[in-house]
Design brief:
The protein is an alpha/beta fold and 645 residues long. The protein contains 18 helices and 20 strands. The chain has a domain at 257-392: Alpha-Beta Complex (Flavocytochrome C3, Chain A, domain 1). The chain has a five-stranded parallel beta sheet with strand order 7-3-2-11-18. It has a four-stranded mixed beta sheet with strand order 1-10-9-8. Strands 17-12-19-20 form a four-stranded antiparallel beta sheet, covered by helices on one side. The radius of gyration is 24 Å and the shape is globular. Bound molecules: flavin-adenine dinucleotide. Flavin-adenine dinucleotide is lined by residues 14-20, 37-40, 45-47, 49-54, 136-137, 173-174, 213-215, 225-226, 229, 233, 268, 394, 418-420, 431-435, 438. Pfam families: FAD_binding_2, Succ_DH_flav_C.
């Protein structure tokens, strides 16, 4: 019999970034008792770091914009692997979500005539990113938090209890999704198992709806823009609960992270620098992106520097600069320049805005970047170029969900939204499309989670048995006394050493450029690391013990890394965030293939825990296909799809 404390809520949201808060607000507004559990402090989600803006086709700066253009850009960016329904919903609903933020108190930068200003970003045909300088995520989170507090104040007036219908459990980690029947992969969700990070106290929340909104996986890689929270928890929780992950081979390496000094390597340099006029140059001073415009994009990008520069003031009569190609293209180009020996002194290339905008304008538009480089690298970006290189930034892959309801495939009661969900961005996400994704699908997840819970009577609610809580508790305390046998290869393991080896393996073998032999090697190493992680040992007790937290996170990072490596080895083409040295071209035959990852311990050969399944991506509706020229479609669609048109 477990002694773990249990409490009962209608909806549990795991994560308090943009997706989680938007889901929680929706569920609470529908009258459901909603609990939010987040591993960091309330307000310190990853969303707060978002810089450039939120993409929504409001047409404030160029009236030519509309949801159809946004949909088209999103599909082009994702190389037509996006779930078409998700991309459609996202493009249609993003403007409403931004206007809604404004009604909740968000203060966006304005155009001269007082509308929400929108800036240029890679892959977006028109200026589309609503922004607050380069601190957009901060304003987004501040606004959502303010909305949470407003709802809590309403509840206080009604019941005398601020937390009667919306409560945040901050600095608490969820380690398991509980089920009605733990042995049945398809059984209903019954809640979550958690621990308080500060005290180590365990508790469980019983609830028929669980929304995963835990963000990404970047901490599995050595060079990343992501913070400590991004250990793929939601991805792993879904897998362990029986839900598949989709598109895991697609990991976005943002082209511009800091490369110097080493202590800050990977920290993001926002795409707004290029959106606002910044250009990339190699050590010879050449604006090299003109050499890397791929055939599929040639028509849409400027042919020379003169045209590219004219575009900033006359976008209707000129084409975009190639610095604003989708991120995967720019990251590969930088990688190639460095490899060819034309890099900057510290292994990146130069990003220069100092010769493109007056100093005061740089400080006004890019205050965080100005501050970041001055403080961290002693570089004044109003006077000299930055050194930048690719950094692991975002995962396109995630929980396989129903586009309309955000329900996870095959596990009733489980929902996912935000970076932890897959499908929306296809093989490559456009900048700005994450913040809009969080709000569009966060709202939908909250809505449908609420509807599911509201439809059940008390007697119909699923309940996890005590044995599940006891098993979750035993799993969580294992690092204090791991099962250790006699012999050198069965000794206790240091979680920090395992984490370092994992990051190195993912960086070297499943990074920006991939090949089959290296990924096979990665799978072997990951299986060995997984065995070692079972013996990860920590000293001390459960209070304030970061080593223990890491030992628990390792399970998640290793599972998710295996999904990335296994799916990446299987996909024998290059597309978006997945580049194969041994299969350099995009292969139309792969256009409709989704790879699903499922947990399956019977995968003997390389000791893995994940099985792959192939599934066809749904067809794109004819009215949506009509948004593209036939010539362009012929570059992407399979032979049959082209024939059937
Ligand atoms: P997050 O905001 O990361 O929230 C995840 C939440 O889950 C956190 O509260 C965390 O504590 C919690 N959590 C995780 N695991 C657990 C667990 N086991 N138990 C309990 N809680 C857990 N996108 C754009 O569209 N525009 C931009 O300008 C932009 N700029 C960016 C700049 C940077 C530096 C970075 C890193 C990303 C940027 N992105 C941008 C991407 C975007 O910020 C993220 O994709 C997005 O914020 C993810 O939001 P989320 O709600 O899914 O997750």
């Amino acid at each position: 019999m477990s002694t773990v404390e249990r409490q009962s809520w209608d909806v549990v949201v795991v994560g308090a970034g943009g997706a989680g808060l938007r889901a929680a607000i929706e569920a609470r507004e529908r009258g459901l008792r909603t609990a939010v559990v987040c591993k960091s402090l309330f307000g310190k989600a990853h969303t707060v770091m978002a810089e450039g803006g939120i993409a929504a086709a409001m047409g404030n700066v160029n009236a030519g914009d509309g949801w159809q253009v946004h949909f088209r850009d999103t599909l082009r960016g994702g190389k037509f692997l996006n779930h078409p329904r998700m991309a459609e919903l996202h493009a249609r609903e993003a403007p409403d979500r931004v206007w809604e933020l404004e009604t909740w108190g968000a203060l966006f930068d304005r155009t001269k005539d007082g509308r929400i200003s929108q800036r240029n970003f890679g892959g977006h045909e028109y200026p589309r990113l609503a922004h607050v300088g380069d601190r957009t995520g901060l304003e987004l989170i501040r606004t959502l938090q303010q909305r949470v507090v407003a709802l809590q104040q309403e509840d206080f007036k009604e019941s005398g209890d601020h937390e009667a219908r919306l409560k945040v459990f901050q600095e608490c980690t969820v380690t398991r999704v509980l089920k009605e029947d733990a042995a049945d992969q398809g059984s209903r969700v019954a809640g979550v198992f958690c621990y308080e990070r500060e005290s180590g106290r365990f508790f469980a929340i019983d609830a028929p709806s669980v929304v995963l909104a835990t963000g990404g996986i970047g901490k599995s890689f050595k060079v990343t823009s992501n913070s400590w929270e991004y250990t793929g928890d939601g991805h792993a929780l879904a897998l362990l609960a029986g839900a598949p992950l989709v598109n895991m081979e697609f990991v976005q390496f943002h082209p511009t992270g800091m490369v110097w000094p080493p202590s800050v390597k990977g920290i993001l340099v926002t795409e707004s620098v290029r959106g606002d006029g910044g250009v990339l140059r190699n050590s010879e001073g050449r604006r090299f992106m003109f050499d890397y415009i791929p055939e599929v994009f040639r028509e849409q990008y400027a042919k020379d520097e003169a045209e590219a520069d004219r575009w900033y003031t006359d976008p209707d009569n000129n084409r975009r600069p190639p610095e604003l190609l989708p991120r995967d293209e720019v990251a590969r180009a930088i990688n190639a320049e460095v490899k060819a020996g034309r890099g900057s002194p510290h292994g990146g290339v130069f990003l220069d805005v100092s010769t493109r905008l007056p100093a005061a304008e740089i400080e006004r538009r890019l205050p965080s970047m100005h501050h970041q480089f001055k403080q961290l690298a002693d570089v004044d970006i109003t006077k000299e170029p930055m050194e930048v290189g690719p950094t692991c930034h975002y995962v396109m892959g995630g929980v396989d969900v129903d586009p309309d309801t955000a329900a996870a495939t095959g596990v009733p009661g489980l929902f996912a939204a935000g970076e932890v969900a897959g499908g929306m961005h296809g093989s490559n996400r456009l900048g700005g499309n994450s913040l809009s994704d969080l709000l569009v699908f966060g709202r939908r997840a909250g809505l449908h989670a609420a509807e599911l819970a509201a439809a059940l009577t008390a007697g119909e609610r699923p309940q996890a048995d005590e044995a599940q809580l006891a098993a979750a508790e035993a799993e969580a305390v294992r690092p204090f006394a791991p099962p250790v046998d006699e012999g050198a290869d069965a000794a206790p393991e240091n979680p920090y050493a395992i984490h370092q080896e994992l990051q190195q393996a993912m960086n070297d073998l499943v990074g920006i450029i991939r090949r089959e032999s290296e990924m096979t090697e990665a799978l072997t190493r990951l299986a060995a690391l997984r065995r070692r992680a079972e013996r990860a040992a920590v000293e001390g007790h459960r209070q304030y013990n970061p080593g223990w937290h890491l030992a628990l996170d390792l399970r998640n990072m290793l599972l998710v890394s295996e999904c990335v490596a296994r799916a990446a080895r299987e996909r024998t083409e290059s597309r978006g965030g997945h580049t194969r040295d041994d299969h350099p071209g995009m292969d139309r035959a792969w256009r409709r293939v989704n790879l699903l990852c499922r947990l399956d311990d019977s995968q003997g050969a390389d000791g893995g825990a994940v099985r792959l399944e192939r599934r066809d991506l749904p067809a794109i509706r004819p009215d949506l296909l009509d948004l593209f020229d036939d010539d362009e479609l012929a570059k992407y669609l399979t032979e049959e799809e082209v024939k059937d048109r």
